[in-house]
Design brief:
Elements: H1 2-59, H2 70-77, E1 82-87, E2 90-95, E3 98-103, E4 106-111
Length: about 120
């Protein structure tokens, strides 16, 4: 009789332990789902911001061409990666591997090797 009593008591103990582990697992899963949801919202917000910035960049009608001033190039392209003064009246702006060449403050040529320059050929 005692063995049966201990066996039943042990079985009840195991069932109780399984329920508490099960509840802990449920809480853990719920917590993970909440974190996942928050991360998905943050990722979507970042994607939206990136798309808005990209769209604004595409919608910009600011370009430069041969004869444009340094200020016009800076307006169209922003700050260069680097720039060099190659002679008293000559300099070049470097954007990645693309280069814009100036003489007396105006564009005289460019190398659009990186295909990133916002340049138009004037008619």
């Amino acid at each position: 009789m005692t063995k049966i009593y201990y066996t039943i008591l042990f079985a009840l103990f195991l069932v109780g332990c399984n329920q508490s582990v099960s509840q802990t697992e449920k809480d853990y899963i719920k917590n993970l789902e909440e974190k996942n949801s928050a991360l998905e919202k943050e990722l979507q917000a970042l994607k939206n911001a990136s798309e808005s910035q990209e769209q604004a960049s595409k919608n910009s009608n600011t370009f430069f061409t041969i004869g444009s001033t340094e200020d016009e190039v800076l307006e169209a392209m922003g700050e260069p990666t680097a720039y060099l003064k190659t002679a008293p009246e000559a300099k070049k702006f470097i954007y990645g591997i693309s280069t814009v060449y100036f003489y007396q403050g105006k564009v005289i040529s460019y190398d659009n090797l990186d295909q990133n320059l916002k340049v138009k050929v004037s008619k």
